[in-house]
């Protein structure tokens, strides 16, 4: 990787860390009685939304040049819908993994699913922004020889 790419990657990761800190601090200013431990469901939602918004904005600002074929409205809509489906599938997969690691299946479904959404936001959303819904690119990047 070139120095410029490493710098952009470092800046993006620092902005994600800053959004997590802001997600823990800013709701306490605007919401009465907010604490990360006391209202953890609200915090999970706020943190997921902050990180997802930041990732999408960074992708829109730092996006690579696309060919004219890929700029069509139909292509963008189909790509967006595929990305939404992949994100939802990753949420379901993380939820299943969390339950297999010992989270209660029935008693804390909301907490477990929101935690799965947070994990998907940190992992899958960044990959979807960079790689898109291209399965071959995902296999190439995450395979042993990629």
Automatic annotation (TrEMBL):
InterPro entries annotated for this entry?
Answer: GPI_biosynthesis_protein_Pig-F
What's one Pfam family the UniProt record gives for this protein? PIG-F
Where does the chain cross the membrane?
9-29, 41-62, 83-106, 112-131
Q: How does it sit in the membrane?
A: Multi-pass membrane protein
Location of this chain's protein in the cell: Endoplasmic reticulum membrane
Instruction: Report if keyword Metal-binding is assigned.
Output: no
Which pathway does the UniProt entry assign to this protein?
Answer: Glycolipid biosynthesis; glycosylphosphatidylinositol-anchor biosynthesis
Task: Please provide the Gene Ontology terms (biological process) for this protein.
Answer: GPI anchor biosynthetic process
* Keywords for the protein's UniProt record, in alphabetical order: Endoplasmic reticulum, GPI-anchor biosynthesis, Membrane, Transmembrane, Transmembrane helix
Sorted alphabetically, the Gene Ontology cellular component annotations on this record are: endoplasmic reticulum membrane
Q: What is this protein called?
A: PIGF protein
Q: Which organism is it from?
A: Tichodroma muraria
